[in-house]
Amino acid sequence: MANCRCRLGDMIRDQSSCYSCWAFGAVEAMSDRVCIHSNGRMRPRLSALDPLSCCNYCGYGCLGGFPSMAWDFWWRNGIVTGGSVEQQFGCLPYPFPRCGHGDHSRGLTPCPADLYPTPQCSKYCRSGYVKTYEKDKFYGNSSYNVNATEGDIMMEIMKNGPVEATYHVYDDFISYKSGIYHHVIGEYYGMHAVRVLGWGVENGVKYWLAANSWNELWGEYGFFRIRRGNNECGIESMVNADNAEHFEHQLRELAETPQRRNSPRSATRHHVTRMLSDDSLNTF
């Protein structure tokens, strides 16, 4: 069972105008798994920019990629830490700004119609960061596809932590605001990848709890719920995961470093905490 110090869902990210969901869904689940496998001693935010720009076999960068290859890249090459352009922490922060997705702008500038170009790979951490690129890496171990059954996916999350799921997106998902989503009507847009971190039941309807990468103004503070057990939009067919075991050097460094107090919880974190207190929700 995951250590209670691993408060999953502390941060909802924003992929901006770049089809990098395949990288975001992966690094968010990986970050949670590192925390879980280290019993809460390490809580990294792995960089979406690292696989986006440096994995030359993961796909097409900001034009789209393959989630399974992001997990493969993690155990073969490792992934460094990184925040966002607004929150400059870690080795390689994401370079593109937050923007309004669909009709969820609420004060944000709508995402540009034209995609940003894929950034060039850099194996140097940002100026002022204390570690080198190689020293900052976290590694997974033996990436795999989770069996496409409700029970196997639940067991994987329960034993090892969040997973990345890929599914079909329609217009009515983009306009989602709350509740348990199921596709009814609307134009087909393509594939999308997200972190799935739990499940629950509301009014007799089973659902998966997932974190999107369209910032916290979208959906339920950046999260959404989608029907579980019927392979809604294919979300149970393409699920990726990996073990988070290769970070012994980070644990040694952590033991030698004075620990800082946790920062105050964000509004998003409060929202997730309330959701986690619901007896019908099973997550880590």
From TrEMBL:
Function: Thiol protease. Has a role as a digestive enzyme.
Pfam family name, one: Peptidase_C1
Protein name as annotated: Cathepsin B-like cysteine proteinase
Domain of life: Eukaryota
Keyword Protease: yes
PANTHER family: CYSTEINE PROTEASE FAMILY C1-RELATED
The organism of origin for this protein: Fasciola gigantica
Family: Belongs to the peptidase C1 family.
UniProt domain Peptidase C1A papain C-terminal: residue ranges: 2-243
GO process terms (BP): proteolysis
One MF annotation (Gene Ontology) recorded for this entry: cysteine-type peptidase activity
SUPFAM superfamilies: Cysteine proteinases
Keywords: Disulfide bond, Hydrolase, Protease, Signal, Thiol protease, Zymogen
